[in-house]
Amino acid sequence: MLLLAVAFIVAFVLLLYMVSPLISPKPLKLPGAHVVVTGGSSGIGKCIAIECYKQGAFITLIARDENKLLQTKKEIEKYSVNDKQVVLCISVDVSKDYEQVENVLKQAQEKLGPVDMLVNCAGTSVTGKFEDIEVNSFERLMAVNYLGSVYPSRAVIATMKERRMGRIVFVSSQAGQLGLFGYTAYSPTKFALRGLAEALQMEPLETKLISETSSVCQAEQVARVIVKDAIQGNFNSSVGSDGYMLSILTSGMSPVTSITEGLQQVVCMGIFRIVGLFYLGSFDSIVRHCMMQREKSESADKTE
């Protein structure tokens, strides 16, 4: 039995060794690269733009609010490493009109060159019980969080394939790895991004598409991890211990970009599943307790 287990591990390592050169991309060099960040006027998007600019990249910021864009542009320019760097601002809603998104990205490429990395950060959230959320909120979140990543990606993918280089980054969240109470409108949109990234990964191209997963951390910390993994071409990315555990648990049929990553998933999957069951039990207990407390409070109010 022991020999069989050893033989299986050796065979698995050899398989990963043979496959990894086919799927491991070359590191992306940021100095002089053109990086496009949607939702780049605030939050994680702004921090990613700053991190890339610090490494010598040219930045195109895309968001709806023109005033915020201009403020962010001034803030980013403080981190320039040479006098040739440029921050271009484009005010557009990436979730409404594909042709408009395609046109503005063509303009950006005419000014700053082909897109070397696209980071899809545009997103929004609505929380509440399923029956309390307005129906149009489901449509709006799917448009912003999903189509708002599809449209820019669709607009740059052809050029990346022609050049046989580039990165497309989808910024997800832990709510895109497991369903959570109150996130019935938000979670499905992030699950959709994961499916999109995995499907695109199978297309025969040199471009590597990354599904980024962030935990509840400071935006600067998340941005550093995203940029680092995007440069290396890792498919999965996580921040914090909870994020790491979820990335292992939800790896499923997602690709690996190193032998180490594959081994970690195989070794840790069972252990993390046990830990995850405790998490799920705890979540369910919290939800039931809160519902009981609310019912008691409502009953008390009625009797007064």
Description:
- This protein is an alpha/beta fold and 304 residues long.
- It is 57% helix and 11% strand.
- It has nine helices and seven strands.
- The chain has a seven-stranded parallel beta sheet, sandwiched between helices.
- Helix 2 (43-54) packs across helix 7, helix 5 (135-163) packs parallel to helix 6 (187-201) and helix 8 (240-249) packs across helix 9.
- The longest helix has 45 residues, at 259-303.
- The protein is globular.
- The N and C termini lie far apart (69 Å).
Summed up, the helix count is 9
Helical fraction = 55-70%
Low-confidence stretches: none
* Separation, N- and C-terminal Cα atoms: 69 Å
How many individual β-strands?
7
Strand proportion, as a percent range, falls in 5-15%
Give Rg in angstroms: 21 Å
Instruction: Please list the strands of the largest sheet in the order they lie side by side.
Output: 3-2-1-4-5-6-7
- Give the ordered list of helices and strands: HEHEHEHEHEHEHEHH
Principal-axes shape call: globular
SSE-based structural type = alpha/beta
| Major sheet attributes | 7 strands, parallel
Average pLDDT across residues? 84
Key features of this structure:
single chain; 304 residues; alpha/beta; 7-stranded parallel sheet; 9 helices; 7 strands; globular
SSE topology:
Elements lengths: L1 H22 L10 E5 L4 H12 L3 E6 L2 H12 L9 E5 L6 H15 L4 E4 L14 H29 L3 E5 L15 H15 L6 E5 L6 H14 L3 E2 L2 H10 L9 H45 L1
Helix pairs in contact: 2-3, 2-7, 4-5, 5-6, 8-9
